[in-house]
Here is the input.
Amino acid sequence: MKNETELTDFSPIRNKPTRARYVILVLLFFITAINYIDRASVSIAAPSIQTSLHISPALLGVVFSAFSWTYTGMQIPGGLILDKFGSKRTYGISLFVWSVFTGVQAFAASFGFLFGCRLIIGLAESPAFPANNRIVTTWFPRRERAFATGVYTAGEYVGLAFATPVLFWILTAFDWRAVFISSGALGLIFSIFLV
Here is the structure.
């Protein structure tokens, strides 16, 4: 049986809260921001994708919804995976996989390829919020958990608010493929902190 004080799961060394919890909270904030940047990137690139790949509005709608299908379907299994393998390992793999497939969307030449990428991204992102909750519960005393949850949740909106103009600039200056490459690269950089 796994020792509960083992340091492989973002577990604090002692029961007394340490300052390390704030470093972890900042990391959760940025990973949550990246999570939402990756989700939004397809919306930003959508008109260009539609023109480039000759995708009808109906099929583009299917591409948008593909993420939600696997994301929703994997919430409970994702939680079970977290319980079995721990937050650090699961979150690290999850962030790495969703970032790779965010970047791989840049090479889409067909509806099917793009659709498949969106399915995998939804699948890979599914453990993110259960992991955030688990990490906050592990690292923060009860009296600080609402604050910690508020901080990482703010990452969703900060990611969208600050990244959307940047991604539009990338789209305008380069093309829609660069939007996915830059978004995916950002996630890959942060996945280093979880490995």
